[in-house]
Each structure stands twice: as C-alpha cells, then as structure tokens.
Design brief:
heterodimer; A: 143 residues; alpha+beta; 4-stranded antiparallel beta sheet; B: mainly alpha; 0% strand
C-alpha cells in the first residue's frame, strides 16, 4: 500500500497512477465554460454535439492554455487575452473535429460558435455571484 | 521506537490487526466474477445501461493531443482503430471469462491489465483527464503483479514474506490482500492530496464547496438538455451549506477522514466493512450534491471492502453452529 501511495503522489497524472486531485483545493472562486450559438444566443449542448461533457471541455481548454504557456515559456500571470482566445479557438477546432462524426452536429444549422466563460464567486454579502464573459467567437463548418 | 514510549493500549490495538486476510475459494471466485463484470458493465439505479469499457463502434480516438502515461513514449491510437478495437474488446471478454474461472492467471491478468490501461490511457490523452477508471486499472495491475511475483521470486530462490510459497491458496490470499491495499491506497492518496493542496485547511474550507456545486451543476446543464422539471440550482443544498457551515464541515470532514485513514480498512474484516460503508456513503453524498458519480469506486468498495457474501456466510455459519449446539 505504501508503495502505491508514494508512486501516486510522486508521478501525479501518469495513467493508471494519479494523485487524485479532484476537489483537493477548494477556492471561493471557480469558473466553467459553455458554448453558445451567437445567432440565437442559445447554449449548444456539448454531449450530443461533440460527445464530451462541459467539464471535460474545461479540462481540454486548460490543456490548450497549458501548451501555449509551455511553447511561449510564460507564467500564468503573463498570459494575454489573445492567449486565452487562442486556447478557446483551438478547443473549438478540436470539438468540430469530434462533431464531424456526430449526426447532431452535422444536422445542426450553426455557422458560428461562441465560447463563454462564467466566473463564480462566493461572497459574504451577495452570496453566489456569476459573471459571464466571451472567450472567443469564430466561424465553424458543420459538414 | 522503544516499547515504553508506545502506550500499551496502542500496542495491543495494532498488535491484533493488520494481519493479511485469508480468502475462501467461493469468496475468491465471487471477487473475480464481480471484478470481471465491473470491467464491462457499471449498471446503477440511476444509469441501468451504463458501460465501463467503451463498446465497439463507440471508441475511435485518432490522435493523442495531450499524452498521458505511456502515451508520452509511444503512439497508442492504434488501439482505437475501428478495425482493431472490436477485436480487442472481444479478446478482453474472452480473457475475463478465463480470469473468472481462475486458470492461467499469470498470463491472463497481465494481458487484461495492459489492455485496460492502454484503452483508458488513450481516453485520458485527449486533454481532459477523468478519475473514474484509474482505480480499476490499478486493481487489475496489482492483481497481475501479485500473481506473477511469487513465481518470479520462487524461480530465483528468493523469499517473498507476504507470499511464502506458490500454492494456489497463498497466491490467492496475496492477490486479494494486494487488491485491498491498492483500493485503500487510492483513498489515502486522495486524502493526502487534499491535505497537501489545502495546507491542512480542507475541512475549514468545505463551506466554499458551494461554488463547486454551482459550477458542477451548471456544467451539467450545458452538457445536455435537462429532463423536464429538472433543476440545476440545488437551492436547498446551497442554502443549507450557507446557513450551517459547521454542520457542512462535520459532514464533509467525515468523508475526508474516511479517505485519509482508509488504510484502517486493512486492520480486520470488520474495519473493512466499516470503511467500505463509510466511503460508499461518501460517494453517494457526492453524487447527491454534485451529480458526480464514481461507479467504479463504488463497485469495488462493495465487492472487496463491504463484501456482502462474506458476512452472509459468516452469519449463517454462526446460526448453523448455534442450532447444532442447541440440539
């Protein structure tokens, strides 16, 4: 047991080993992402369209952001709004690739996609406050 | 450490337990049968048709944009090739049948573990790492190591204290004790990660989990359309956690202690049951609060720690003995 604990804590994310970081740090501020059709301002459901959950979409967005940081050798505080948009743009490209094999996406009449970020904060005075903002909006093909 | 510095009650307590469990043939067969079922099916009350291993035709990942594990070293996308994956899936069914029967385990288990790990390594190399399959992959890996290691040691003339010989019963006990240790280790790691990440303040911070609950439920609402009448607000839960921060700390702190001290499940069968039930209840609470299920974890807790067949056999055995003694 001791060996497994040490290996998991040292190698962190190296399947099948993991340090199981889910909810290990609880912060009063969090965020999530969702997709929107700018023509209707209606949300685009990620599971039927692209086969992934909004939670997996967030992890994928952060993987792209991490790659940008690595390539450009930047720390998180040095990231520019363009870097965040680029990560969003790469995420949308990846989703479109996934959508090509899915009927729901192929049959949807969506010409543009907007990636929205929602920041959630717990405050002592106002309770839960949510603040939406646009990460990126781009033209897409669904054929 | 000198004996006089360790309180007597503590010495007595730890001296009694942490002996490897002994497993019967029927118990071992049920462990293998239920583990094999868990590799493929994860039916729950909420999701009766849930699969664990992706079905043929539903697993095609042509690239690995964010490699994880062995995918850092080699390209493993071939495993999801539509021409290859169905063969792998049906081979795993065949291997699982042989595993349940219990023959050729030093060959079958490494193959089964390797394929399971490869499939979910690729699934976890897409940029979003999930944490639901690791425990099952680790259990299969641990079982594979436990059935191979005694033979390797015996061949070299070395002594493996946990498995003194290569008899079927010794290897069986070693294999399932290793399984229990790996399951306990996964929870201890989770507890330690919380402890380290929060610098020891995890329980204190639990009222802030409201933010996580809101996030998780909103994400659910953007994943797929909710059923009519369903709500993502969880207003009652949020109100309760806001109004009762100390009760929140008490409830969620309980789950945290079950994780951190999960190694106590190895103390004896009763502690395994207590920790199995405690951790199972924790998963059910997470499912209720955040709609986040960990069915693989729940299933393995039921099979190995709660172990209902063992308790049925034990209790019916006692009653039978009592009746015999009375007559």
């Amino acid at each position: 047991m001791f060996v497994t604990v040490v290996v998991c804590l040292v190698v962190k994310e190296c399947y099948p080993f993991s340090h199981f970081p889910m909810y290990s740090g609880i912060a009063p501020v969090q965020h999530y992402f969702y997709l929107e059709d700018p023509a209707t301002n209606e949300p685009v459901m990620t599971r039927p369209m692209f086969g992934i959950s909004a939670s997996a979409m967030k992890k994928t967005y952060h993987s792209h952001l991490h790659n940008i940081r690595e390539v450009e050798d930047k720390s998180t505080k040095d990231l520019t709004p363009e870097d965040y948009s680029e990560a969003g743009s790469k995420l949308i490209d990846q989703l479109i690739e996934k959508g090509k094999t899915r009927d729901d996406w192929r049959e949807a009449e969506i010409k543009r996609l907007r990636l929205m970020r929602v920041d959630i904060e717990r405050t002592d005075t106002k309770g839960i406050v949510t603040t939406p903002s646009t990460v990126v909006e781009k033209e897409v093909e669904n054929q | 450490m000198s004996r006089r510095f360790v309180p007597r009650w503590l010495r007595d307590f730890f001296g009694r337990g942490f002996q490897p469990f002994q497993f019967g043939m029927v118990e071992a067969f049920l462990f293998r049968l239920l583990t094999a079922v868990t590799i493929f099916l994860l039916s729950t009350v909420e999701q009766p048709n849930k699969e664990s291993l992706p079905l043929p035709g539903e697993f095609h990942l042509p690239d690995q944009p964010n490699p994880n594990g062995i995918a850092h070293l080699v390209d493993i996308t071939w495993i999801s090739d539509p021409a290859i994956y169905p063969k792998i899936y049906y081979s795993m069914i065949a291997l699982a049948v042989v595993y349940v029967i219990g023959i050729g385990l030093p060959v079958v288990l490494p193959l089964l573990a390797a394929l399971h790990i490869l499939i979910f390594t690729l699934a976890n190399s897409q940029g979003a790492i999930g944490h639901d399959n690791q425990i099952l992959s680790l259990v299969l890996l641990a079982q594979a190591v436990a059935v191979c290691l005694p033979h390797l040691f015996a061949r070299r003339g070395w002594n493996l204290p946990q498995c003194p010989n290569t008899s079927r019963s010794s290897i069986r006990d070693f294999m399932f004790n290793t399984t229990l240790q790996v399951i306990a280790a996964c929870y201890v790691v989770t507890g330690l990660a919380k402890l380290f990440e929060s610098k020891g303040l995890w329980i204190w911070q639990t009222p802030d989990l409201i933010v996580e609950i809101v996030k998780t439920n909103h994400q659910r609402g953007y994943t797929k359309a909710l059923e009519a009448g369903a709500s993502i607000d969880q207003a009652d839960t949020i109100a309760f956690m806001t109004d009762h921060p100390w009760l929140t700390r008490l409830f969620l702190g309980g789950g945290f202690f079950f994780e951190l001290f999960a190694f106590m499940a190895l103390y004896n069968r009763l502690w395994a049951l207590v920790f199995g039930l405690g951790l199972f209840a924790m998963h059910r609470c997470i499912l209720w609060l955040m709609k986040l299920g960990f069915p693989e974890n729940e299933r393995l807790l039921i099979i190995y720690l709660i172990n209902i067949p063992f308790w049925i056999i034990l209790i019916t055995g006692f009653r039978k003995r009592d009746r015999t003694a009375a007559s």
